[in-house]
Write a structure and sequence with these properties.
A two-stranded antiparallel ribbon has the order 1-2. With 471 residues, it is mainly alpha-helical.
């Protein structure tokens, strides 16, 4: 079994997804007319005008913060450090590039999630995501079921154990807190939030996520101001090393290949564009304007914030510290802690531990939120089944805090690899629908109208769409 899982991960993560995610991002970037660049301001407009919600959904701002809760995790702290250690400063340039094309992918999958969403059990909150557009848009419910199971295993259970493990390690190192105590504390806090369902998760996320991201970015700005004279040199390193110039002098093996591979990998893992995770929460939003594309714009912004802002903040703090050394073995969280200790003394190491707690904890609740839509698709959206899933999540949090079993985590990687592959195929197959929705939205904006979507005006898109939602 271990050999099979290892083989699948080699195929998924060594070939299919690295190239597939990039290719799909480039495909949607071109097909949608470089939408993420030409209509960047629209992303903010769709978020800023979205304070209100209704009884059927959460607000687009809440959906953005829940998706950011999942996207912004330990990968933004440890993953960026690993990319720098293995690929050098040039890795950051390639991380930016993969995020910029990934914004188009995120737009496409979340737009589809909105179009094909439905009401939950007993007329409850909106539910949707890849399983729904695979079933309703492509007519393949069995493939949607496979996707849902993979999502629950990877995001709902095992990856939450990974996040808890990161918190336990950080607290043990910074405060000497026993891992069991940390696991129990995180489990209690998680339970308080997730037993309230998606609405409770959204209420917590819209407060905690802007706070945690804001403080982290503020610290990066302080570092920039403290080291303003060195900033041009650091930026020069990022661009020069991205194309192999001066890489040998810096001691980083592999030059342009190492920079590109590690930047692309870390970027893909961090922003989740194309993975099929964020669309599950995007579907629960009541979009403003009332058009599927508006939530696509909102979730595209999430990719920008995750990588172009938060990941860049980590990279800048590390590069300006001068502690990056590819020969000393210091990487991951330890490298980020060393950088902040250089800038702020002992406070730096404590801050990293606290940041990991917030980033990882919000990832746990965000990951769980995705699973409720998957449970709904599988016919398990009732209270009893959801209570059972919540209990399993808490058990995995405690277990993950205590130990890391590589085989289990490899299995989760294989599950995520399969769900991402399914999702990429689905959104490309439905790319005509995405293009039609985008043309409709932009045409209304160009005419000076508030975009509205009425399914009766688009009979070619009606198959699988719930008419009551888009009447």
């Amino acid at each position: 079994m271990t050999a099979i899982i290892g083989f699948l991960n080699t195929i998924f993560w060594g070939y299919v997804l690295i190239y597939g995610l990039l290719a799909v991002g480039a495909f949607f970037t071109v097909r949608l007319g470089f939408l993420q660049f030409r209509h960047f301001a629209e992303m903010f407009r769709c978020v800023m005008g979205s304070g209100a919600t209704d009884r059927d959904g959460i607000s687009p701002f809440q959906a953005l913060t829940v998706s950011l809760a999942s996207r912004v995790g330990t990968g933004n702290i440890a993953g960026v450090a690993v990319a720098l250690y293995l690929g050098g400063p040039g890795a950051i340039f390639w991380m930016w590039m993969v995020a910029l094309v990934g914004m188009a992918t995120a737009y496409a999958e979340s737009t589809l999630a909105q179009l094909y969403k439905t009401h939950g059990a007993e007329g409850g909150i909106y539910r949707g995501g890849p399983a729904f557009y695979i079933s309703r848009g492509l007519g393949l419910p069995w493939l949607g079921a496979i996707f849902s199971v993979c999502l629950i295993i990877s995001f709902g259970l095992v990856f939450n154990a990974v996040q808890a493990n990161s918190i336990a390690d950080a607290f043990a190192g910074a405060f000497g807190l026993p891992k069991l105590a940390t696991g129990l504390l995180v489990a209690v806090l998680t339970g308080v939030v997730i037993f309230g369902g998606v609405r409770q998760i959204a209420r917590v996320a819209e407060i905690v996520v802007p706070f945690m991201a804001g403080v982290y970015l503020l610290l990066a700005i302080v570092v920039l101001v403290m080291n303003i004279g060195a900033v041009p040199g650091v930026l020069g390193q990022i661009f020069a090393r991205a194309f192999g110039f001066g890489a040998a002098a810096g001691g980083f093996a592999g030059g342009i290949a190492a920079a590109a591979l590690n930047g692309i990998k870390r970027g893909l893992f961090s922003n989740e564009a194309g993975m099929g995770s964020a669309p599950n929460i995007a579907a629960t939003a009541s979009p403003a304007p009332h058009h599927p594309s508006s939530q696509g714009f909102v979730q595209s912004l999430g990719v920008f914030i995750d990588t172009l802002l938060v990941c860049t903040a980590t990279a800048v703090m590390i590069l300006l510290s001068g502690v990056l050394d590819p020969t000393n073995g210091v990487t991951g969280t330890a490298l980020t802690q060393a950088a902040l200790t250089h800038h702020f003394g002992s406070f730096g190491a404590i801050f990293v531990a606290v940041a990991i707690f917030f980033f990882a904890f919000t990832s746990i609740i965000g990951n769980y939120a995705y699973c409720e839509s998957a449970m709904e698709f599988l016919g398990l959206g009732h209270k009893g089944a959801l209570t059972g899933l919540r209990g399993l999540v808490l058990i995995m949090v405690i277990w993950g805090a205590l130990q890391a079993v590589a085989t289990v985590f490899d299995f989760a990687d294989a599950s995520m690899g399969l769900m991402a592959t399914i999702n990429l195929i689905a959104i490309v197959a439905l790319s005509g629908v995405v293009a039609a929705l985008t043309r409709d939205y932009l045409a209304q904006r160009k005419a000076g109208q508030e975009p509205r979507f009425h399914i009766a005006e688009h009979p070619g898109l009606a198959r699988g769409v719930e008419p009551e939602i888009w009447k």
